[in-house]
Write a structure and sequence with these properties.
Elements: E1 5-11, H1 18-28, E2 36-42, H2 48-56, E3 61-63
Parallel strand pairs: 1-2, 2-3
Length: 72
């Protein structure tokens, strides 16, 4: 079995319209989704309905919490 191509889509915020619509459209038209291991990574989810739309499409958005870094 061939290895899957790993793809990380990193967006700063998931909200209605904009990047969310583009990603869902792009992923929905992928000719061979079984060839890819796709991860949606974000720092903020402004609209919980976005999560449901990605889940319905077969993807689970991962949320990373921002880290504060202090200069020493």
């Amino acid at each position: 079995m061939p290895r899957k191509i790993k793809v990380a889509e990193v967006v700063s915020r998931l909200e209605s319209g904009g990047v969310k619509s583009m990603l869902l459209n792009y992923l929905g038209h992928c000719k061979h989704p079984e060839d890819f291991d796709i991860h949606i990574i974000t720092q903020d989810i402004n609209d919980e309905r976005c999560v449901k739309q990605f889940q319905d499409a077969g993807y689970i958005p991962l949320m990373l919490s921002p880290i504060s870094v202090r200069a020493s």
